[in-house]
Amino acid sequence: MPGVRLCAELGAAQRCEHESDFASHPTSQATGLTIVNRSSEAIKLYWLDPQGARALYSTIPPGGKVSQESHIGASWVITSRDGHCIGVFNAAPVSIAIF
């Protein structure tokens, strides 16, 4: 799919070990995220608040897609169904596919 980058290409999986370092510091500039779940399991989308704590925004079923409004400087975590980090992402005009 044109314009879609995989988690491994973004280096986001390596960020999981330092998730708390990616607390959100959103600006007023709006952006959005599009997450496509191409895996065989449900995934969860969390916003990291300014203290670095997770706030659940969405559970995305296999084959599902969510478009999430955000702001530049916001950080998001995608996890497995049981909460294991898949990747930490900064809000930017990029599409992400989970396989």
User: What is the strand arrangement across the widest sheet?
Assistant: 1-8-2-5
What characteristic shape results from the CA principal axes?
Answer: globular
Low-pLDDT residue spans: none
- How many runs of DSSP E, i.e. beta strands? 8
Count structural domains.
1
Class based on secondary structure composition and strand pairing? mainly beta
According to CATH, the fold-level topology is Immunoglobulin-like
Please indicate the percent range of residues in DSSP E strands (runs of 2 or more). Answer: over 45%
Name the CATH superfamily classification: von Hippel-Lindau disease tumour suppressor,  beta domain
Question: Mean pLDDT, as a whole number?
Answer: 85
Structure description:
It is a single chain. Helices cover 8% and strands 47% of the residues. The chain has helices at residues 7-10, 12-15; strands at residues 4-6, 30-37, 43-48, 54-60, 65-71, 75-80, 85-90, 95-98. A four-stranded mixed beta sheet has the order 1-8-2-5. Strands 4-3-6-7 form a four-stranded antiparallel beta sheet. It has 99 residues and is mostly beta strands. The chain has a single domain (4-98), classed as von Hippel-Lindau disease tumour suppressor,  beta domain (Immunoglobulin-like). The protein starts with a strand and ends with a strand.
